[in-house]
Write a structure and sequence with these properties.
The structure holds two protein chains of two kinds.
Chain A (H helix, E strand, L loop, with lengths): L2 E3 L4 E5 L4 E3 L2 E3 L5 E8 L6 E7 L7 E2 L2 E6 L4 E6 L8 E9 L5 E3 L3 E6 L1
Parallel strand pairs in A: 2-12
Antiparallel strand pairs in A: 1-4, 3-9, 5-6, 5-10, 7-8, 8-9, 10-11, 10-12
Chain B lengths: L4 E3 L2 E4 L5 E6 L6 E7 L5 E8 L2 E5 L6 E5 L5 E5 L8 E8 L8 E2 L3 E5 L1
Classes of the chains: A mainly beta, B mainly beta.
Chain lengths: 114, 113
């Protein structure tokens, strides 16, 4: 069965600092996609970053980057120069092109401190 | 461009009743997904509709069902409500194929008393 594990229920970081959120997954599929979604307090979930498993290059979106280790089945999110607006619940998600099921982790609540 | 919309925002029901939740996807999106977000459990995949057909469902009992209409909007029905069905129900839409980016709606908060 496919699973996604986020082992850090809560984290905090000082404004302007860097923080890394961890995510591990388990799958027997070869073709899949990985995502980080952000759910700010009382606001809608939005995509942060997306990674295709067949691409070795780590995805980057401005201050957000991932460390994708396919062999280790690890997909961590690094947030550089943290801003107060980054305070949110972050979900890691996996979908394989075979099962078509999105599997989400339980989330990491990140608080950016002023 | 209008985003994904869901109605109602809040829904209060009692045990044994039925609940109907609605979702309108972004224009041009043919896929609609439903998730249950219960406290402390993250998002649990419920259903995926594409082009009017149910393509996949998560590990939920048959009393969770839905449909997708010709205009790609969707409805989630929960029959015989139980207390543990209380949760935020999120709808998301995407272009065809489930590995495209999903765009989420604000959710419907269902409370079962």
């Amino acid at each position: 069965a496919q699973t996604v594990t986020q082992s850090q229920p809560e984290m905090s970081v000082q404004e302007a600092e860097t923080v890394t959120l961890s995510c591990t997954y388990d799958t027997s599929e070869n073709n899949y996609y990985l995502f980080w979604y952000k759910q700010p307090p009382s606001r809608q979930m939005i995509l942060v970053i997306r990674q295709e498993a067949y691409k070795q290059q780590n995805a980057t979106e401005n201050r957000f980057s991932v460390n994708f280790q396919k062999a280790a089945k690890s997909f961590s999110l690094k947030i550089s120069d943290s801003q107060l607006g980054d305070t949110a619940m972050y979900f890691c998600a996996h979908v394989s092109t075979g099962t078509y099921k999105y599997i989400f982790g339980t989330g990491t609540r990140l608080k950016v401190l002023a | 461009e209008a985003g994904v919309t869901q109605s109602p925002t809040h829904l209060i029901k009692t045990r044994g009743q039925q609940a109907t939740l609605r979702c309108s996807p972004i224009s041009g999106h043919t896929s609609v997904y439903w998730y249950q977000q219960a406290l402390g459990l993250g998002l649990q995949f419920l259903l995926w509709y594409d082009e009017g057909e149910e393509r996949n469902r998560g590990n939920f009992p048959p009393r969770f069902s839905g449909r997708q209409f010709p205009n790609y909007s969707s409805e989630l029905n929960v029959n015989a409500l139980e207390l543990e069905d209380s949760a935020l129900y999120l709808c998301a839409s995407s272009l065809e194929r489930s590995w495209n980016t999903q765009y989420f709606g604000p959710g419907t908060r269902l409370t079962v008393l």
